[in-house]
Amino acid sequence: MTDNTTRLDHVVLWVRDPVAAADFYEKAVGLEPLRVAEYTEGAVSFPSVRVNEETIIDLAPLTMAEGMGMLPGAADAAGHPVNHVCLALTEHGFDALRARLEERSVPVTGYTHDAYGARGPARRGFYFQDPDGNVFEARHYA
What is the pLDDT tens value at each position of the chain, 142 positions in all? Predict the structure, then answer.
């Protein structure tokens, strides 16, 4: 087994409208919005949403892409090459997420079964996209 002291701190998604994205992640996905007021006041560069006590998703405006000069090609990375981000939930949270997405007419895929992940095979999963086209997988383990 590996040393499990490394944790996923955050994922940065490029979005057209960070406030609308935070609203989607709060109301459709059920995540806690962070720093939205500070963003709208111009005090911070982007808002975030909390996945859990250790992990957040930053909602970076596409206008920031042009300033991403720290790595060659970083400015062109908006939406690429990330395939998808996977959210692992409890069975209840999984069902509640799907219900919220369907209630908001967000297209979802059929269920997957026994797809391999960080905790082994997941009992069920499905995929959906946020309003900016970022792909998410939701799953729960047995």
Answer: 566 677 888 998 889 999 999 999 999 999 999 999 999 999 999 999 999 999 999 998 988 877 766 556 665 665 555 778 999 999 999 999 999 999 999 999 999 999 988 888 999 999 999 998 888 999 999 8
pTM of this prediction?
0.81
- Which residues face 61 on adjacent strands? 15
Pair of tokens at residue 1? 């087994």
Q: What are phi and psi of 140, to 5 degrees?
A: -140, 150
Fold of 79-142: 2,3-Dihydroxybiphenyl 1,2-Dioxygenase; domain 1 (3.10.180)
The answer to whether 45 and 82 have CB atoms below 8 angstroms apart is: no
The helix/strand/coil state of 70 is coil
CATH code for the domain defined by 1-66 = 3.30.720.120
